[in-house]
Amino acid sequence: MIPEGLPALEAWLAADLVRLDLPRKPWVVPHRHDGIDVLNVVVVGAGMAGLAVAATLELAGVPTTLFDQSPEGYEGPWATTARMETLRSPKTLAGPALGLPALTFRAWFEAQYGAAEWEALGLIPRLQWMDYLRWYRRVLALDVRNGHRVRQILPQADGPVMLAIAGPGSVFTVRARRVVVATGRDGLGAAWMPDVARSIPPEQRAHSSDPMDYGRLRGLRVAVVGGGASAMDVAATALEAGAASVDLLIRRPDLPRINKGKGAGNPGFVLGFYHLPDHWKWRIRHYIGWSQTPPPHGSTLRVSRHPNAHFNLGCTIERITVADAGEQAGGGRRPVLEVETTTGRFDLDFILFSTGFQIDWARRPEFATFADRVLAWRDRFTPPADQHDQEMLDSPYLGPGFEFIEKEPGACPGLERIHCFCYPATMSHGTVSGDIPAISEGAERLARAIISRLYHEDVEAQFAAIRAYADPELIGDEWRPALPPDLRRDDDNGDRGDAD
Ligand SMILES: Cc1cc2nc3c(=O)[nH]c(=O)nc-3n(C[C@H](O)[C@H](O)[C@H](O)COP(=O)(O)OP(=O)(O)OC[C@H]3O[C@@H](n4cnc5c(N)ncnc54)[C@H](O)[C@@H]3O)c2cc1C
Q1: How many Å lie between the centroid of ligand 1 and the Cα of residue 442?
Q2: Could you report the per-residue pLDDT of 245-269, keeping only the tens digit for each?
Q3: Is 102 in the pocket of ligand 1 (CB under 6 A)?
Q4: Where do the domains of the chain lie, and which CATH numbers do they carry?
Q5: Residue 11, CB half-sphere, CA atoms under 13 Å: how many?
Q6: Phi and psi of 41, rounded to 5°?
Q7: Alpha-carbon span 53 to 449, nearest angstrom
Q8: pLDDT digits (tens, 9 = 90+) for 130-179
Q9: Is 434 in the pocket of ligand 1 (CB under 6 A)?
Q10: In the chain, pLDDT over 70 holds for what percent of residues?
Q11: 436, 440, 446: which to mutate for ligand 1, most atoms within 8 A of CB?
Q12: 77 alpha carbon to ligand 1 midpoint, in Å?
């Protein structure tokens, strides 16, 4: 039976949680440091990954605090910088539902629109996914502090990690026994553009992940560098905003057709990847990366239906010259970007780079105190000559609980209290720290590791609690001690009692 309306769904979820005896009672021993309360777990970033791990911890009785720099309801890319019409992921995936049917997107959708609409739904509209995440956070009553940017994370030798946080109107510090870095696709770095982009005036270029009003492209000759999903999204958005033309400059001679990452995703891959030897992890991730992910079918059609969209394949930029075009109609001067490529010259007004992200600690000041102490894949593994990949080499080499590991043992005590649950964890743990398909499995793996370590650290206090525990199950009047057999009479049951 499908509950009708969100209040009915929420009642259903609440009843399921009662049946599962969730959430568990808080059990973690409170800690203080220098006279100040220490938080159990701080999650940096309240996107889908941060919410999923916080929910798992809360259900297990571990109070958890999330900080996100975004305004409430605008975490992650969905309602900010993403420009696709729908998600790529199939609607049937359970995503961050943590094994609870009432917490799925499907339950949320059907409760509001019914089963027939669900059947009719193709892919999930992007903004609807954001609405679902907003509901997820609300219905689980997660403790998210929006408008709070974590400025610095400082591991400490003598205990909890210190965090400096800029909130509305104040900067303050907190201490946390565990920190989860759930900072997203560019979580340990930023957007990447090729060097050639530097020669372009900043007002004539952007990265596909930059917030931008695409209305400013009306009437302009635009190029999009790249041929992936985001390239299609920004090309379509530019065309819909009235760009005079959009040229996609795609280095590859053909667009990839097969999504190998999707093909890899079975339960064995999700659960077994972490335990593979390094050379297998490398081989699989390198192959998936090298094969490249095709842009979604619908996103490609959204571009190609415009007669002024041009797919230039085998087209590598060689040189960009900024030439003065003189006065523009309506006033002002806009230089022309003369772009020499392997397939010819393009005269352009604006270039959008859809060239992905890179791990670049230098662009993330919040990690500056420990960035150069973190063990990376390049410190542990030398790939075969034909399998080089800089992004993979730069990825952190993580422990079984997603924790960072010191490059030199002893050089950064406390680092192991910081857990990396953003995209760069993929090299060590597989695709469980960002994308929708296996986010619940990733969150559960991480939460289990944190829970186990919190318990280990507190074993003395936990043992004292066991000793102090005094909730009687027997009161003492449920039985009477027996008399020795030779003192018993035939007509009594032999118990020591008050009968005599
Ligand atoms: C355009 C786009 C489309 C995608 N489409 C799909 C798809 O269809 N299917 C799929 O499975 N995956 C998709 N992904 C990949 C992935 O699902 C998303 O990137 C998703 O947002 C990952 O969730 P997250 O919680 O890891 O990161 P995010 O949602 O990016 O959340 C990270 C949060 O961390 C916050 N933050 C970062 N640094 C700090 C700091 N110092 N202090 C405080 N807050 C901070 C940010 O404000 C942000 O809200 C897409 C990604 C992009 C970029």
Answers
A1: 15
A2: 999 999 999 999 999 999 999 999 9
A3: no
A4: 6-189+358-459 (3.50.50.60), 193-257+294-355 (3.50.50.60)
A5: 7
A6: -135, 130
A7: 11
A8: 999 999 999 999 999 999 999 999 999 989 999 999 999 999 999 999 99
A9: yes
A10: 97
A11: 436
A12: 6
